[in-house]
Amino acid sequence: MRDIAIYGCGGFGREVLQILHALNAQEPQWNCLGFVVDPGFARPESVHGLPVVDDISSLERGPRANIAIAIGAPSVRRRVAEKLGALGHVFPTLVHPRAWIGAKVSLSEGVLVCANACLTTDIIVSPHVHLNLSVTVGHDAELGAYSTISPGANISGYVTLGEGVDIGTGATVIQGISIGDGAVIGAGAAVVRSIPPHCTAVGVPAKIIKTGQDKS
Which of the residues 21, 89, 96, 139 is marked catalytic? Predict the structure, then answer.
């Protein structure tokens, strides 16, 4: 059994805990020590019977801890990963047993894949990407680091996502589309043309409603 902590104690933190439970039901491998939040962040004392702390050193049992970053916002997830990575912590790739992963799918460190996600073949998933419940990703797609694909979103073949892209619940990206770094795609949107970096696009078909560099 390997010790692991979950960074973030909200809804997705609890969903990541369920991934660990499901993996352990197949073969015991993860011992979840508890949840970690930023100092000063309002927090309960415990979640699902596990402690919630604002100092990871109170949970870890050695100089390097396994950590799953359960924070949906790409820019915040990047900040946490860079801070913890600089301290020597490591980020395992966690895939729910009910996800379907095809041949030649590359999953980098810190990638989290929830139940019923489907990744077909010849796909590159860069570090710290979140693939939520029932997401589909088609052949030859490339997903940039720190991107979040929300529940029920569909990414078609030959799609390229830049870094820190946020795809809303139930959105669809048709084949061959590129979406630039830091772009946000609204829930239920249908992306039928490429989206520049740091833009927000919503609707069917998706139209850009906001442009400009992400200041978060």
Answer: 139
> For residue range 58-91, what is the model confidence (pLDDT) as tens digits?
886 666 789 999 999 999 999 999 999 998 899 9
Q: Which tens digit of pLDDT belongs to each residue from 137-154?
A: 999 999 999 999 999 999
183-191: long-range contacts (C-beta < 8 A, 24 or more apart)? 184/210, 187/150
Rounded CA gap, 83 and 85, in Å? 6
pTM for the structure as a whole: 0.93
Going across the sheet that includes 184-185, the strands are 94-95, 112-113, 130-131, 148-149, 166-167, 184-185, 200-202, 207-210
Active site residue 198: no
Residues 152-199: tens digit of each pLDDT: 999 999 999 999 999 999 999 999 999 999 999 999 999 999 999 999
Give dist(CA 192, CA 141) in Å, integer: 15
Q: How far apart are CA 152 and CA 158, in angstroms?
A: 19
Rounded CA gap, 37 and 59, in Å? Answer: 12
193, 211 Cβ separation under 8 angstroms: no
Length of the chain: 216
